[in-house]
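FIELD: query
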Amino acid sequence: MNTDQELKELVKQKYGEIALQSKEENQASCCGAGGCSTEIYNIMSDDYTHLEGYTEDADLGLGCGLPTQFAGIKKGDVVIDLGSGAGNDAFVARAETGETGKVIGIDFTPAMIKKARINAEKLAFHNIEFRQGDIEHMPVTANAADVIVSNCVLNLVPNKDGVFKEIFRVLKPGGHFSISDVVLVGDLPEALRSAAGMYAGCVSGAVQREEYLRLIEANGFKGMLVQKEKAIVIPDDILQDYMDDAGIAAFKSGDTGIFSVTVYAEKPAELACSGPGCCD
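FIELD: result
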Protein backbone atom coordinates (compact mmCIF):
# COMPACT_ATOMS: atom_id res chain seq x y z
CA MET A 1 0.00 0.00 0.00
CA ASN A 2 1.18 3.54 -0.70
CA THR A 3 2.28 6.02 1.96
CA ASP A 4 -0.32 8.23 3.65
CA GLN A 5 0.63 11.23 1.52
CA GLU A 6 0.54 9.19 -1.68
CA LEU A 7 -2.93 7.93 -0.77
CA LYS A 8 -4.12 11.48 -0.17
CA GLU A 9 -2.82 12.56 -3.55
CA LEU A 10 -4.50 9.55 -5.17
CA VAL A 11 -7.83 10.53 -3.61
CA LYS A 12 -7.41 14.15 -4.67
CA GLN A 13 -6.66 13.09 -8.25
CA LYS A 14 -9.49 10.57 -8.55
CA TYR A 15 -12.14 12.75 -6.98
CA GLY A 16 -10.95 15.73 -9.01
CA GLU A 17 -11.71 13.68 -12.12
CA ILE A 18 -15.10 12.65 -10.73
CA ALA A 19 -16.01 16.29 -10.03
CA LEU A 20 -15.79 17.06 -13.74
CA GLN A 21 -18.36 14.42 -14.67
CA SER A 22 -22.08 13.99 -14.19
CA LYS A 23 -23.67 11.46 -11.86
CA GLU A 24 -24.68 9.40 -14.91
CA GLU A 25 -21.12 9.32 -16.22
CA ASN A 26 -19.79 8.31 -12.81
CA GLN A 27 -22.34 5.52 -12.53
CA ALA A 28 -21.09 4.10 -15.83
CA SER A 29 -17.48 4.01 -14.66
CA CYS A 30 -15.89 2.39 -11.63
CA CYS A 31 -12.96 4.77 -11.88
CA GLY A 32 -15.05 7.88 -12.12
CA ALA A 33 -12.99 8.97 -15.11
CA GLY A 34 -13.52 6.36 -17.80
CA GLY A 35 -11.55 3.23 -18.53
CA CYS A 36 -13.68 0.79 -16.51
CA SER A 37 -16.98 -0.88 -17.23
CA THR A 38 -18.34 -1.16 -13.71
CA GLU A 39 -19.03 0.83 -10.55
CA ILE A 40 -16.95 1.21 -7.41
CA TYR A 41 -17.93 4.66 -6.23
CA ASN A 42 -21.66 4.12 -6.72
CA ILE A 43 -22.41 0.63 -5.40
CA MET A 44 -22.96 2.04 -1.90
CA SER A 45 -24.98 5.19 -2.57
CA ASP A 46 -28.45 5.80 -1.12
CA ASP A 47 -31.33 7.70 -2.70
CA TYR A 48 -31.39 11.37 -1.69
CA THR A 49 -34.14 12.55 -4.00
CA HIS A 50 -36.89 12.49 -1.35
CA LEU A 51 -35.02 14.74 1.09
CA GLU A 52 -35.69 18.47 1.33
CA GLY A 53 -32.72 20.41 0.01
CA TYR A 54 -31.73 17.71 -2.49
CA THR A 55 -29.91 19.32 -5.42
CA GLU A 56 -29.51 17.23 -8.54
CA ASP A 57 -26.45 19.12 -9.80
CA ALA A 58 -24.71 18.39 -6.48
CA ASP A 59 -25.50 14.67 -6.41
CA LEU A 60 -22.54 12.71 -7.76
CA GLY A 61 -23.72 9.40 -6.27
CA LEU A 62 -20.67 9.07 -4.01
CA GLY A 63 -22.20 8.49 -0.58
CA CYS A 64 -22.82 5.33 1.43
CA GLY A 65 -25.67 6.55 3.62
CA LEU A 66 -27.91 9.48 4.50
CA PRO A 67 -26.27 11.00 7.60
CA THR A 68 -28.23 14.26 7.40
CA GLN A 69 -31.44 12.25 7.78
CA PHE A 70 -30.27 11.02 11.20
CA ALA A 71 -28.29 14.06 12.36
CA GLY A 72 -30.99 15.82 14.40
CA ILE A 73 -30.18 19.22 12.89
CA LYS A 74 -32.23 22.06 14.37
CA LYS A 75 -33.07 25.52 13.08
CA GLY A 76 -30.17 27.89 13.65
CA ASP A 77 -27.52 25.18 14.04
CA VAL A 78 -23.99 25.54 12.71
CA VAL A 79 -23.35 22.38 10.67
CA ILE A 80 -20.06 21.19 9.19
CA ASP A 81 -19.99 18.65 6.36
CA LEU A 82 -16.69 16.76 6.10
CA GLY A 83 -15.76 15.81 2.54
CA SER A 84 -18.56 17.95 1.13
CA GLY A 85 -17.95 17.10 -2.53
CA ALA A 86 -20.27 18.98 -4.88
CA GLY A 87 -22.42 20.05 -1.92
CA ASN A 88 -25.38 17.68 -1.76
CA ASP A 89 -25.21 16.83 1.95
CA ALA A 90 -24.48 20.46 2.77
CA PHE A 91 -27.58 21.60 0.87
CA VAL A 92 -29.74 19.01 2.64
CA ALA A 93 -28.27 20.19 5.96
CA ARG A 94 -29.12 23.80 5.06
CA ALA A 95 -32.75 22.82 4.55
CA GLU A 96 -32.71 21.64 8.17
CA THR A 97 -30.81 24.51 9.78
CA GLY A 98 -32.65 27.18 7.78
CA GLU A 99 -31.61 30.73 7.02
CA THR A 100 -30.76 31.43 10.67
CA GLY A 101 -28.13 28.68 10.72
CA LYS A 102 -24.90 28.15 8.86
CA VAL A 103 -23.36 25.28 6.92
CA ILE A 104 -19.63 24.88 6.24
CA GLY A 105 -18.47 22.25 3.76
CA ILE A 106 -14.83 21.11 3.85
CA ASP A 107 -13.23 19.21 1.01
CA PHE A 108 -9.68 18.25 0.04
CA THR A 109 -10.23 18.47 -3.72
CA PRO A 110 -10.10 21.88 -5.47
CA ALA A 111 -12.40 20.76 -8.30
CA MET A 112 -15.05 19.68 -5.79
CA ILE A 113 -14.85 23.00 -3.94
CA LYS A 114 -15.25 24.89 -7.21
CA LYS A 115 -18.27 22.80 -8.21
CA ALA A 116 -19.92 23.19 -4.79
CA ARG A 117 -19.45 26.97 -4.83
CA ILE A 118 -21.01 27.21 -8.28
CA ASN A 119 -23.98 25.15 -7.08
CA ALA A 120 -24.41 27.39 -4.02
CA GLU A 121 -24.30 30.52 -6.17
CA LYS A 122 -26.97 29.12 -8.48
CA LEU A 123 -29.20 28.53 -5.45
CA ALA A 124 -28.44 31.99 -4.01
CA PHE A 125 -27.58 30.52 -0.62
CA HIS A 126 -25.75 33.08 1.52
CA ASN A 127 -25.34 31.09 4.75
CA ILE A 128 -23.34 28.23 3.28
CA GLU A 129 -19.65 28.19 2.40
CA PHE A 130 -17.14 25.68 1.15
CA ARG A 131 -13.57 25.65 2.44
CA GLN A 132 -10.71 23.69 0.91
CA GLY A 133 -8.80 21.76 3.54
CA ASP A 134 -7.68 18.48 5.03
CA ILE A 135 -10.19 17.11 7.56
CA GLU A 136 -7.23 15.92 9.64
CA HIS A 137 -6.50 19.66 10.11
CA MET A 138 -9.83 21.42 9.66
CA PRO A 139 -9.82 25.13 8.71
CA VAL A 140 -12.29 25.81 11.53
CA THR A 141 -11.87 27.21 15.05
CA ALA A 142 -12.50 25.06 18.12
CA ASN A 143 -16.02 24.69 19.55
CA ALA A 144 -17.61 26.04 16.36
CA ALA A 145 -20.18 23.42 15.29
CA ASP A 146 -23.44 22.17 16.74
CA VAL A 147 -23.51 19.22 14.34
CA ILE A 148 -20.98 17.50 12.08
CA VAL A 149 -22.01 15.21 9.23
CA SER A 150 -19.96 13.21 6.76
CA ASN A 151 -20.84 10.72 4.04
CA CYS A 152 -18.38 7.99 3.01
CA VAL A 153 -15.27 10.09 3.58
CA LEU A 154 -13.35 8.96 6.67
CA ASN A 155 -12.57 5.64 4.96
CA LEU A 156 -10.53 7.69 2.45
CA VAL A 157 -8.39 9.22 5.21
CA PRO A 158 -5.33 7.27 6.40
CA ASN A 159 -5.32 8.83 9.89
CA LYS A 160 -8.86 8.22 11.12
CA ASP A 161 -7.89 8.77 14.75
CA GLY A 162 -6.67 12.25 13.80
CA VAL A 163 -10.02 13.05 12.16
CA PHE A 164 -11.99 12.03 15.25
CA LYS A 165 -9.69 14.23 17.36
CA GLU A 166 -10.46 17.13 15.03
CA ILE A 167 -14.20 16.43 15.18
CA PHE A 168 -13.99 16.57 18.98
CA ARG A 169 -12.06 19.85 18.85
CA VAL A 170 -14.45 21.54 16.43
CA LEU A 171 -17.76 20.46 18.02
CA LYS A 172 -19.24 22.67 20.69
CA PRO A 173 -19.64 21.03 24.11
CA GLY A 174 -22.93 19.16 23.84
CA GLY A 175 -22.66 19.01 20.04
CA HIS A 176 -22.85 15.77 18.11
CA PHE A 177 -22.04 14.07 14.82
CA SER A 178 -23.78 11.67 12.47
CA ILE A 179 -21.37 10.01 10.04
CA SER A 180 -21.93 7.40 7.35
CA ASP A 181 -18.87 5.32 6.52
CA VAL A 182 -17.62 1.95 5.28
CA VAL A 183 -16.33 -0.60 7.80
CA LEU A 184 -15.22 -4.23 7.72
CA VAL A 185 -15.95 -7.37 9.67
CA GLY A 186 -13.10 -9.81 9.02
CA ASP A 187 -9.99 -9.28 6.91
CA LEU A 188 -10.09 -8.29 3.25
CA PRO A 189 -8.08 -10.46 0.83
CA GLU A 190 -4.62 -9.03 0.28
CA ALA A 191 -5.42 -8.24 -3.37
CA LEU A 192 -8.18 -5.85 -2.28
CA ARG A 193 -6.47 -4.56 0.85
CA SER A 194 -3.37 -3.42 -1.02
CA ALA A 195 -5.13 -2.03 -4.13
CA ALA A 196 -4.80 1.73 -4.45
CA GLY A 197 -7.80 1.82 -6.76
CA MET A 198 -9.96 0.09 -4.18
CA TYR A 199 -8.70 2.57 -1.60
CA ALA A 200 -9.97 5.47 -3.70
CA GLY A 201 -13.17 3.48 -4.18
CA CYS A 202 -13.79 3.46 -0.40
CA VAL A 203 -13.18 -0.24 0.27
CA SER A 204 -9.57 -1.02 1.13
CA GLY A 205 -9.26 2.12 3.25
CA ALA A 206 -11.97 0.85 5.60
CA VAL A 207 -11.04 -0.41 9.07
CA GLN A 208 -12.64 -3.06 11.25
CA ARG A 209 -16.08 -2.13 12.58
CA GLU A 210 -15.03 -2.60 16.20
CA GLU A 211 -11.86 -0.56 15.68
CA TYR A 212 -13.91 2.26 14.14
CA LEU A 213 -16.29 2.36 17.10
CA ARG A 214 -13.37 2.07 19.54
CA LEU A 215 -11.74 5.17 18.02
CA ILE A 216 -14.90 7.15 18.64
CA GLU A 217 -15.05 6.20 22.31
CA ALA A 218 -11.28 6.60 22.78
CA ASN A 219 -11.54 10.22 21.64
CA GLY A 220 -13.96 11.16 24.40
CA PHE A 221 -17.35 10.91 22.68
CA LYS A 222 -20.39 9.66 24.59
CA GLY A 223 -23.82 8.30 23.70
CA MET A 224 -22.55 6.42 20.65
CA LEU A 225 -25.27 4.79 18.59
CA VAL A 226 -25.18 2.90 15.29
CA GLN A 227 -28.18 4.49 13.60
CA LYS A 228 -28.18 2.39 10.44
CA GLU A 229 -26.19 -0.51 9.03
CA LYS A 230 -26.35 -2.25 5.67
CA ALA A 231 -24.23 -4.84 3.90
CA ILE A 232 -22.32 -3.86 0.76
CA VAL A 233 -21.77 -6.43 -1.97
CA ILE A 234 -18.96 -5.85 -4.47
CA PRO A 235 -20.04 -7.17 -7.89
CA ASP A 236 -18.02 -9.97 -9.48
CA ASP A 237 -16.99 -7.83 -12.44
CA ILE A 238 -15.17 -5.51 -10.04
CA LEU A 239 -13.61 -8.34 -8.05
CA GLN A 240 -12.28 -9.86 -11.28
CA ASP A 241 -9.90 -6.91 -11.57
CA TYR A 242 -8.19 -8.05 -8.38
CA MET A 243 -8.70 -11.82 -7.98
CA ASP A 244 -9.12 -14.97 -10.03
CA ASP A 245 -12.31 -17.06 -9.91
CA ALA A 246 -11.05 -19.21 -7.05
CA GLY A 247 -10.13 -16.14 -5.03
CA ILE A 248 -13.54 -14.59 -5.62
CA ALA A 249 -15.30 -17.78 -4.55
CA ALA A 250 -13.20 -17.98 -1.38
CA PHE A 251 -13.87 -14.31 -0.58
CA LYS A 252 -17.63 -14.62 -1.05
CA SER A 253 -17.85 -17.81 1.01
CA GLY A 254 -15.68 -16.49 3.85
CA ASP A 255 -16.56 -14.53 6.95
CA THR A 256 -15.54 -11.07 5.70
CA GLY A 257 -18.33 -8.51 5.50
CA ILE A 258 -18.27 -4.96 4.13
CA PHE A 259 -20.84 -2.63 5.68
CA SER A 260 -22.07 0.91 5.50
CA VAL A 261 -22.77 2.24 8.98
CA THR A 262 -24.21 5.53 10.15
CA VAL A 263 -22.89 6.36 13.62
CA TYR A 264 -24.02 9.06 16.08
CA ALA A 265 -22.05 10.31 19.09
CA GLU A 266 -21.88 13.40 21.29
CA LYS A 267 -19.17 15.63 22.71
CA PRO A 268 -19.93 15.84 26.44
CA ALA A 269 -21.54 19.12 27.51
CA GLU A 270 -19.24 19.32 30.53
CA LEU A 271 -15.63 18.35 30.03
CA ALA A 272 -12.99 17.38 32.50
CA CYS A 273 -9.68 18.98 31.60
CA SER A 274 -8.25 15.57 30.78
CA GLY A 275 -10.54 15.21 27.73
CA PRO A 276 -8.98 15.46 24.25
CA GLY A 277 -8.66 19.07 23.17
CA CYS A 278 -10.76 20.55 25.99
CA CYS A 279 -7.91 22.66 27.37
CA ASP A 280 -6.86 24.14 24.02
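FIELD: remark
Residues 27-39 have pLDDT under 50 and may be disordered.
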